[in-house]
Amino acid sequence: MKAHPAPTAPASLLGRRDPGWARDFEAILQAYEAAGGKVSALQSDRIASAVISANRVLWVNEIPGVHIEAEETPTGIRAHIRVDAGTRVEYPVHLCFGMIPQEGIQEILPMFEIDEGAEVGFLAHCTFPNAVNLQHIMDATVRIGPGATMRYTEAHYHGPHGGVQVLPTSHVIVEEGGWFENEFNLTYGRVGRMEIRMEVDVGARGVAELTVKAYGMGEDHIRVEETIRLNGPEARGLTKTRIAVRDRAIGEVYTTTEGNAPGARGHMDCTEIVRGEAVARNTPIVIVRNDQARVTHEAAIGSVSRKELETLMARGLSENEAVDIIIRGMLA
Amino acid sequence: MDPLLVVENLHVRRPGAEVLWGVNLTVYPAEVHVLLGLNGSGKSSLAYTLMGCAGYRPAQGRILFDGEDITDLPISERARRGITLGWQEPARFEGLRTGDYIALGMKEPTLARVEEVLRAVALAPTAYLGRPVDQTLSGGERKRIELAAVYAMRPHLAILDEPDSGIDVLGVEEIASLIRHMAAEGTAVLLITHRDEMADAADRASLMCGGTVVKTGDPEEVRAYFAQRCRPHEETLGAQPWEPVNGDTYKEVVTRGVCE
User: Fold this and answer.
1) How many angstroms separate the CA of residue B253 from the nearest CA in chain A?
2) Cys-Cys with A118: which of A4, A83, B111, B119 at CB 3.0–4.6 Å?
3) Which chain A residues are Cβ-neighbours of B53 within 8 angstroms?
4) Cα separation of B51 and A106, whole Å?
């Protein structure tokens, strides 16, 4: 991955607290940048943000219409994030979750409430740069109100050792005319063991789009379980999964889409690239309970396309360089 | 002048067929050499063999490039020596942007050069630099980007496999002009086509038939020969005639059949 320069914590933030807090904050910001986060976003009063290190809430910035309440627990935090009805949030809310130690548990229990007609994006970075034996658990509840929109993008960086277990679970309700997009990226560093579970119930004319991109290597184990229930008329759902595994890594994708109402439309799209002794599995399940609903799926699992490979090699790239570019492109 | 590429008695077998049957061909530096031939005559197979693609390893014969035998070299090494191929149906790449794709083959990539080659194939850089080289491009756009990527490399030898197919008439003229420009800048172009009018852009031409080169010379002469004497295989034998059981059958096909 590209090298990140050591960040400088915003002086305006560091000046407000004690030296111990400043050290923690500096460390987590370095990890935040390693995961792709932009520290400058945390300096802006116009951008809502929160920084959580282990079970410490190091920083919260609220803006009009966006409320963030965080409570420390023995092993993590419990948070309530609410966006008021009709609020259009100009910049994504920036969230940083991480742990600097090599070992430990972090439990994040957030509740997101996006009220009627609100529109908001979230940019979350989860970073565990030194992990050797570390567990990150998230159990999120999300409610997208009528006509509201929530876009949640989460990027992970787990360091080079693969000693992380990441176990996020989400229960999402999309009410009438609501829109939910979720994108999960773990494409740099090691994965370790990751199990993503997400269940989404979509009401009338609501939309849910779930994207997962991950690159596993060594002994990494990636397991994705996603269920979209299209319960209201004309509800729409899409799962898009892009997994690359090499060495002895395992990639497992289990997606279910239910078409339970007239005019519901769902699609599941999975592509997995396998190299070396890695193993990839994909199990799409289609359930249709209404004769006017339609759910489709497509999956492609295999090695890198020979033609793509040879095209790049004809530009002078080695086979390994070409494979890397193809995989990075798929995960971009 | 010493030749850039010399192909000697090249034979390539594919499952169920011998697709190249004793090909001899010479290409000189900075020349445009048109390779004419009907569908199925072996032009693309020759292109893949020259580039070193999987499944096209010669059973017999050799390929000399700049005086050195490259018959057993892998694709990447041939590319590093200055050979590249523009595919007839170029691959699509999810998530790879056009600007990055073009820059991949450049020794010292610059934005200015990427923009220059896009303009050379009549694509506006502002519209295409950030577009992914994927299914969202039309066939014609993808072909133009492929040609731009080849041009960006400034190769010693560019093998262009039907860059004119799937392109409108106006576009064909632009492509012919670019090919001449590439040659003027020092790139030899082996231009594979079955449009005989593309011979207008050539310095020399060869005609492939039945998996071998049956004639090489002045483009007008080869073009006339191609237009007057070559017929689709079905008209003569009703099947792929270049699947010879033995040499005698092959000779009979070439003599009596495709090239009358």
Assistant:
1) 32
2) A83
3) 310
4) 54
Tell me which residue of A191, A180, A104 sits closest to A140, measured CA to CA: A180
ipTM at complex level: 0.89
Indicate the pairing of strand B5-14 with strand A236-245. unpaired
Helix axes B169-184, B139-153, angle to 10 degrees: 10
Question: Which residue shows structure tokens 């809310």?
Answer: A93
CB contact under 8 A, A314 and B95: no
Q: Could you tell me the pLDDT band of residue A17, with boundaries at 50, 70 and 90?
A: low
Measure in Å the smallest separation between the Cα of B181 and chain A Cα atoms.
20
User: Which residues, given as ranges, of chain B have pLDDT below 70?
Assistant: 169-170, 231-260
User: What's the gap in Å between the CA of B83 and the closest CA on chain A?
Assistant: 8
Q: Is the pLDDT of residue A108 over 80?
A: yes
Q: Which residues of B touch A303 (CB under 8 A)?
A: none
A3 touches chain B (CB under 8 A): no
> Which tens digit of pLDDT belongs to each residue from A52-91?
998 999 889 999 999 999 999 999 999 999 999 999 999 9
Length of chain B equals 260
Query: Which of these CATH numbers, 3.40.50.10240, 2.40.50.140, 3.30.230.10, 3.40.50.300, describes B5-258?
Result: 3.40.50.300
Please provide residue A37's backbone torsions phi and psi, each rounded to the nearest 5 degrees. -75, 155
Predicted confidence (pLDDT) per residue in A143-166, tens digit? 999 999 999 999 888 777 778 899
Q: What is the pTM of this model?
A: 0.78
Taking the Cβ of residue A300 and every Cβ of chain B, the question of whether any pair is shorter than 8 Å is answered with no
% pLDDT > 90, chain A: 70
Q: What angle do CA A24, A25, A29 make, to 5 degrees?
A: 120
Domain chopping of chain B, boundaries: 5-258
Contact state of A316 with B74 under an 8 Å Cβ cutoff = no
Nearest CA in chain A to B84: A314
| Cβ neighbours of A318 in B, within 8 Å | 76
pLDDT for A308: 95
Q: Is there a contact between A310 and B84 if contact means CB atoms under 8 Å apart?
A: no
Give CA separation, A317 vs A320, B104, B210, in Å. Answer: 8, 8, 34
Strand pairing report for A221-230 and A193-202: parallel
What's the pLDDT tens digit per position in A210-230?
Answer: 999 999 999 999 999 999 999
Per-residue pLDDT, B238 = 39
